[in-house]
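Reopening this one. Same input as before:
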Amino acid sequence: MDQIAARLHETFVAAYPGVVAERATRRGFGDAPGLGDAITAGAAWLDETLRNLLERPFRDQTRSPLEVFQEAMRFPNEALRRAGIPAPDRDDAARRAVPGDRYDLAPASSQDLGEPAWRAHLAWGAAKARSASRPAVGLLSADLMDRARIEDLADRAGYTLVVWAGAREVGSGGRRPATALVDLSHPDADDVIRVLAGEGVRVVAFGPHVDDFAMVRAATLGAAEAMPRARLFRSIPDLLPPVV
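Same output, byte for byte:
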């Protein structure tokens, strides 16, 4: 998770208990039995769910952070329902916006979460907008440390990293990046090199420096370059020239 996403995650999770308590108190539900435990459970769910969302590439973030925050209101809503507290009337717009929020606890905007969360949300939105116009580089690798390093280097150079878990994702089509990095230790490496090279993608294969056979095989399958892993990280500034 990059710094912008980490800040958004931190501020949203920190804001949750106070927002729920304040909104419940304002509506007269603040002393409801079980509400405190529900707030704790909701904060834990929000922590995990928001982290999982923000660790994905922007293109795979199918929900907004605010939507996740609003969904976390189901925990206090359920506590209030179990306590037998009558739900207030809600207007049609509120019901359509957050259908499960029977007690009208969900914030309509990140501004309702306090200035730190609001500013973090704005920064995340700006970063997402910038990523939509960035060139992409593809990566096939199961190594999370390699992925994190490559993502950081690509981001600094102005690229968005598209990560494929395996040959099936690559074969599903979609817009191809001009360059793809393929880890030769991945079991689908050969198939992916063959597919991408056949579509005109510049494939750079990398793997252990002792595996000369894998390097030769990659070149035979169509890789434009094949190199040891250590050399790849030194070469990324040349492979991915900074976007102007």
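So the earlier flakiness isn't reproducible anymore. For the record, The first strand starts at residue 136 and ends at 140.
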